[in-house]
Amino acid sequence: MFTAKHQVALVTNGKPSASIVLGDKPTKSAQFAAKELQYQIKRISGAELKIKKTPIQGLLPIYVGESETLKEAGLSNEQFGEQEYAIVIRNDKIILTGKDATLYSKVNYNPDKPAGWSGLPGFWEEHGTLNAVYDFMERFCGVRYFNPTEYGTFYPKTKNLIISGSDIRRKPFFRYREVHPMSVLPERMDSVNILWDRNSKEFKEWQKIAYPKLTQEYTKPGVFKKAYRNIAYRYLLRSRHGGKLMRANHSLYGYYNYFWNKKSKNFIAYHPEWFAKGWGAGRPEQMCYTNEGLIKEVAKEADLYFNGKDITGKHPCNYHWGKDNFAVVPMDNEFHCKCPACQKLLRKKKKVNRQRDYSTDLMFTFVNRVAKLVKQTHPDKTISTLAYAGYMAPPDFPLEDNIAVHFCWENNRSPFSAECKQQKKYLLEWAKKKPNGFFLA
User: Fold this and answer.
1) Neighbours of 42 (CB within 10 A)
2) Of 180, 200, 209, 240, which alpha carbon lies 20 to 30 A from 101's?
3) How many percent of the chain have pLDDT more than 70?
4) pTM of this structure
5) Which of 303, 439, 288, 290 is nearest to 369 (CA)?
6) Is 31 helix (H, G, I), strand (E, B) or coil?
7) What is the pLDDT of residue 421?
8) Rounded distance, CA 98 to CA 164, Å?
9) Are strands 242-243 and 176-177 parallel, antiparallel or unpaired?
10) Alpha-carbon span 315 to 300, nearest angstrom
């Protein structure tokens, strides 16, 4: 690829100077990317570029996704790495392509009829071609994606859309990009970002103002919800939500029903030794993280998970972790086991509001031991965990190389607080300790 700048016209005096070229067998990503490119250029200029299988004589071809022409130019799907894409600008063509999942089902996308959209690329499917188009629209056409509302996308207006720039070949800096819970509930996008509950009168009023055309066109609640969901989903794609699914969450709560509560319909066997000791009668709030049986059980379930077995009952969110990723995260509290082995790994209590290193050694010793066992049977898989609460600080000892750490920054909305400064310090320490397996949660 070259770095010299080229300048080409896509629209001249409000009329197309280019056409969009799709291959004979376009992926879902390429189909949707081509339609998004067509729609957004029309919003900018008023001109609708035609989508064809071959170039139109006299018009600049914009190749979207893999085709025989691009294979000959050395830009086949197989030659791209994970999530990688390319933008190529020449005087005689533009190429927008990238790593795509080999999925070819039809994409239904009329931008003005969102209730009918279907077949859009999944967040966790490779869709490098789509990301190439979005990068192109932002970088070279001045489009900005602010929010999913009818006022949330900025399209600069011009009758002469002229592109000038150099080639780009890149992939997103973050492999895993997600705002919870939007991947499974895109329709919650607005309600988690504004002041009102989604069932309140105020939210409904806000919704009418933010989506005037949508609320007028879709008066049936079910149809409106579908259209509303699709619009939010599209915005998340435009925001590059997705990538390589590598979630981490509190993963052991299901053990109560399987190994503690004898009345549970899911009860398997009573293992009180796996749970925190020394808290008197009643259900313990934590596990005994030094117990050999517990460590082997968690590793066994990771093995089952990676072999495609259903362990949903023990891990209610396991189907969200990713096919190459298994979460090992403790309960969300500091009521730790009082057995000598666990207590030995807890650091001395300090007189501070929140001690961020109190259980660091206990938690990461536990995760390390599980990861080491899992690596014996699945060396190419990942154990994900959190750096959070009392185990936010990194341990002094090394972690297994198959561990991915998600740093859970609790005070990111209080940038001038002492807590935030302390957490930033830990963040930088983690970045040095795990440069290739570190995430922001």
Assistant:
1) 16
2) 180
3) 96
4) 0.91
5) 290
6) helix
7) 87
8) 21
9) antiparallel
10) 13
For residue 155, with 0-12 CB atoms within 10 Å meaning exposed, 13-18 middle and 19 or more buried, which class applies? Answer: middle
Residue 313 and residue 254 in contact, taking contact as beta carbons nearer than 8 Å? yes
State yes or no: pLDDT of 111 exceeds 90: yes
* Token pair listed for 351: 């007189």
pLDDT score, position 79: 92
* 3, pLDDT greater than 70: no
Residue 269 region by backbone torsions, left for phi larger than 0, else alpha for psi between -120 and 50, else beta: beta
Q: Is 129:65 a contact under the CB 8 Å cutoff? A: yes
Distances (CA, A) of 217 to 115, 209, 211, 268, 372: 10, 14, 10, 53, 56
H helices present in 14-83, as ranges: 28-45, 68-72
> 432: which residues sit within 8 A by CB, 6+ positions away?
none
Query: Residue 315: which H helix or E strand, with range?
Result: none
Alpha helix ranges (H) inside 283-434: 292-306, 340-344, 360-377, 418-433
Q: How far apart are CA 378 and CA 262, in angstroms?
A: 33
CATH of domain 6-173: 3.30.379.10
Average pLDDT, the chain: 93
Domain boundaries, the chain: 6-173, 186-242, 255-440
Distance between CA atoms of 211 and 179, rounded to whole angstroms? 22
List pLDDT tens digits, range 174-218: 999 998 788 889 999 898 888 888 899 999 999 999 999 999 999
The dihedral formed by the CA atoms of 196, 201, 206 and 208, expressed in degrees to the nearest 10: 150
